[in-house]
Design a protein that fits this description.
Strands 1-2-3-5-4 form a five-stranded antiparallel sheet, covered by helices on one side. With 127 residues, the chain is α+β, with helices and mostly antiparallel strands. The longest helix is centred in the middle third of the chain and has 18 residues. The chain is built from three helices and five strands. The protein has one domain: 2-Layer Sandwich (HIT family, subunit A), CATH 3.30.428.10. It binds guanosine-5'-monophosphate. Guanosine-5'-monophosphate (5GP) binds next to loops.
Length: 127
């Protein structure tokens, strides 16, 4: 099934410059910015510039160049923010909520990078 992409979702509007964001990093295919309602001392959203609804849409339909750029940018952000365990950082969590069961609010792929504190167990309960 093909995904329908809502060109008016909030992240599409950020990409078009219609809404401001606190930018962390920008590359040819990727934009990263601070979450407006952070749930940890580090809470960065990483989005592809292409019109992808969620993680499986991106994984199956994005070009190799987009996927490589996106993945490397996530690594570089972790390095820059000092949360990378390989550099002595405390670690982090990478989350991509997708669809209804994943409780995805914005229908443009975004990975949350959460860190800066111990985050607790991944899934505590089903709300
Ligand atoms: P989701 O629930 O879709 O995985 O996450 C959406 C995230 O986008 C939430 O953490 C929310 O705080 C964030 N968010 C929603 N609107 C905006 C906005 O206008 N700017 C920024 N920077 N983050 C937003």
């Amino acid at each position: 099934m093909a995904y329908a992409y809502d060109t008016n979702n909030i992240f599409a509007r950020i990409l078009r410059g219609e809404i401001p964001c606190r930018k962390v990093m920008e590359t040819e295919h990727t934009l990263a910015f601070h979450d407006i309602a952070p749930q940890a001392p580090v809470h960065v959203l990483v989005i592809p510039k292409g019109a992808y609804v969620n993680a499986d849409h991106f994984a199956l339909e994005a070009s190799d160049a987009e996927i490589a750029d996106y993945t490397r940018t996530i690594g570089k952000i972790c390095q820059e923010l000092g949360i990378r365990p390989g550099d002595g950082g405390q670690g982090y969590r990478l989350i991509a909520n997708s669809g209804e069961a994943g409780i995805q609010e914005v229908p443009h792929l975004h990975f949350h990078i959460l860190g800066g504190r111990v985050l607790g167990r991944m899934l505590k309960q089903a709300d």
